[in-house]
Amino acid sequence: MEQVPEVATLVAIYNQINQYGRANGMELTVSAPGEVVYSMTVREEHLSSPGTCHGGVIAGLMDAALGAAALTMSFTAGDLVSTVEFKINYLHPVRLHDYLEARGHVEHSGKTLIVASADIICPARDLVVARALGTFNRYPADKRDFYHMLKTKSEE
Fold first, then answer.
1. 13/43 Cα distance (integer angstroms)
2. Which 8-state DSSP code applies to residue 56?
3. Which of 35, 86, 94, 103 is deepest in the core (most CB within 10 A)?
């Protein structure tokens, strides 16, 4: 197997190919493998009723945070992940222009599964607005030709 690039390099590539995150104004910060913060500000296109964010937007941010935490951990072994399942609790409504931080953390990293948890926090209101737990399947990056993407991007 080829040498695994550093996690920071892999995260930079992930940020370049992550269309969903970019389209929704999401920004990923990685403090360490398995520890991430995904942030975004609620925009008008995220609303389901006047002034209130759609639950699917919150679920999307949550899946991204859980998945990014799992992904940064799996990167250390040259693997990728896919979501198996996650369970979310919506604790408080989210409003237009709320700035949100989804803080993801790996709870368990096994040979084939990674379990992560996350809270979505609205810092301005000092409020946890959602909480979740997710399971992710770990698989070799070469199954998705991820290393080829790395070479292509770095050669440009």
1. 26
2. H
3. 94
What pLDDT score does 154 carry? 47
pLDDT tens per residue, range 64-122:
999 999 999 998 888 899 999 999 999 999 999 999 999 999 999 999 999 999 999 99
pTM comes to 0.86
| Distance (Å, whole) CA 34 – CA 152 | 26
Query: pLDDT per residue over 13-41, tens digit each?
Result: 777 888 899 999 999 999 889 999 999 99
Question: Cα separation of 5 and 75, whole Å?
Answer: 8
Amino acid at 130: A
From CA 66, how far away is CA 50, in angstroms rounded? 28
Structure token digits, residue 21: 């995150």
Both tokens assigned to 23: 């389209």
Q: 26 near 64, Cβ under 8 Å?
A: yes
